[in-house]
Amino acid sequence: MPPPRRRPPAPGLLILLIFLALASPGEVAGDDAAPGNVTASAPLPCSDLSRVCTAFVAFPAAGEAANASVLESMFDAAPGDITADAAASPGYAFVRKNCSCLASRTYLANTTYTVPSAAAGATANATAADVAAAAYAGLAVPPPGGPALRPPRPGAVVALHLLCGCSSGHWNYLLSYVGVDGDTVESLSSRFGASMDAIEAANGMAGPDPITTGKVYYIPLNSVPGQPYPVMSPSSPTPAPAPAQNTFSDVSEHHSTKFPYGWVIGSMGVALALIAIALLALVLCKLSQYNPQAPNNQGKSPDQSISHKFQLLKSGSFCYGSGRYLCCQFGNVKQSRTDGSDHHMNTPKGVVVDVFDREKPIVFTYQEILASTDSFSDANLLGHGTYGSVYYGVLRDQEVAIKRMTATKTKEFIVEMKVLCKVHHASLVELIGYAASKDELYLIYEYSQKGSLKNHLHDPQSKGYTSLSWIYRVQIALDAARGLEYIHEHTKDHYVHRDIKSSNILLDESFRAKISDFGLAKLVVKSTDAEASVTKVVGTFGYLAPEYLRDGLATTKNDVYAFGVVLFELISGKEAITRTDGLNEGSNSERRSLASVMLSALKNCRNSMYMGSLKACIDPNLMDLYPHDCVYKMAMLAKQCVEEDPVLRPDMKQAVITLSQILLSSIEWEATLAGNSQVFSGLVAGR
């Protein structure tokens, strides 16, 4: 189930916390750290990287932050994960989290925070990490690098680590609590029902050490703190006044007893006249927009036409390719002649206007690209793709992802433009526009807030990402399958993507999947037998179908094979090329394709009741929270997708049907586990 919609905390509280977090030591009373100063606390150390436990954090909920939905958003928590104790701890909310031992050998829990509009310009030198950490009153620290280093922009999503801890066995839980003025070990002991010795032992305190304001302390607990958090019910609307009893009688008294045939005929005549006038106006408008080529243009050679450069598209009416973004512009945009007064973009030779005759994407200037990415700073770098680097930016008040390509990648640039300006689907990433400089090309896409699927599958905690629950994994597989089905079967021209992999499946803020990177997409030739196109072998090893490697024949069944590998990734959490232990003792590990590893595991898997070695291949981040029959069905679908003979592979329509059934069964399984917050939270680790 998708995570709850985020709502920002109270503006007044947020600004106050930012001020306290960034204040110099001279501005804070005494030597105590400010409540927002997250540097005062260090995470608890750990040694067992497989350790995951239930922990709690105590958050001072005030103002709008006291709203249950705001708390759910800030802590990526389910409603049942939040409790309160109005008698012992008024003004505090207790949030249950899954605490993990990360690669840094420290206990941390993951969450994400959406920067509110009130944070813009609150402090001149503040980063998004400062704003986010201050909002959590010292309970959170940002992961190193990435979006946390950017200035706070309203709506930006920042990944955070929450300070937490796992008990060594003496207690059931540890509660993370930020010390405030007036706290003592004795008062905390009385407030939370823990002995003073236990609090001192859990925090490594020697004797009667004072409680430091702004520092995180770990309170040992033997039971879940508080009661279910109160939900603020919206006030009921004022009922509409009842109509007067004589309303209808008055109407009936004035109603004519004779049917008004004259009025009806007259109204019909007026309506027909208006329709005729509208049609005439439409025809005249179309004729006025028609711009035939001048006769002297007909004698130009194709070579001369290819030498034309891009023009900046003139402002005008835009079409909405998918109903969400200004993607394409129609109209009578004329090509430049030899008139030197026209404005040109410095575009590499070979990129021609003719490619986009029907649908023209928005053209951005190079200066806009530089400004939106802060001159391509490392803080805005999202990752590296097959043909260039991808950067985060904000263009015309819209979050975007900008692919930066060298001029030598003109062919891939044109291919992606041609495909994405013609196909629009909820499961395909949307192209917004492009830009060009003398030596580089830029493609501008919608921004996917949660990054790539790969980041959530392969060692996600160390990268600051959350591991996905089983329900989310099935939904992502279904979304990707629908996107592939669309380009294979439901477009006017059928395409093969040729580079399906987990890093090219992006996730939006609701963890819905979108296929990206169409630079290798290939138009396939329609025939009665099959659809295929002979081409040189391109793509990513581990995802390439054997017949494509052998013959270079691009068919839709190549994408089906790669999709099967992605299904194996969703089940196992392993990469497409994985390292396995050597067969003999002392031998080195070897690199094998994930498909071969999973197929070997499936050989002795008779059914979902006896999964054999397949169970050992299932992603441990799922923590055994999955229905065995659904995992088995997805594994068998993946096995069919990676069949050696492409004829035996299903098409994407069949895959969509199977995954839809698996999703339905998974939802029914989830309903039988009511009360298990780890299942209902959607994200396993870090929630």
UniProtKB/TrEMBL annotation:
Residues that hold ATP according to the record: K403
Cellular component aspect of the GO annotation: plasma membrane
Q: Where in the cell is it found?
A: Cell membrane
Membrane topology classification: Single-pass membrane protein
Provide the GO biological process annotations. innate immune response
Q: Which residues form the Protein kinase domain?
A: 376-664
Q: Which UniProt keywords apply?
A: ATP-binding, Cell membrane, Disulfide bond, Kinase, Membrane, Nucleotide-binding, Serine/threonine-protein kinase, Signal, Transferase, Transmembrane, Transmembrane helix
Where would one find coiled-coil regions in this protein? none
- Name the SMART domains for this protein: S_TKc (SM00220)
The record's section on InterPro entries has:
CERK1/LYK3-like (IPR044812), Kinase-like_dom_sf (IPR011009), LysM (IPR018392), LysM_dom_sf (IPR036779), Prot_kinase_dom (IPR000719), Protein_kinase_ATP_BS (IPR017441), Ser-Thr/Tyr_kinase_cat_dom (IPR001245), Ser/Thr_kinase_AS (IPR008271)
Q: Where is the LysM domain?
A: 175-219
The protein's matches in CDD domains, at most eight in alphabetical order, are given as: LysM
Quick one: signal sequence residues? 1-30
What Gene Ontology terms describe what this protein does at the molecular function level? ATP binding; protein serine/threonine kinase activity; transmembrane receptor protein kinase activity
- What is the name listed in the Swiss-Prot or TrEMBL entry for this protein? LysM domain receptor-like kinase 3
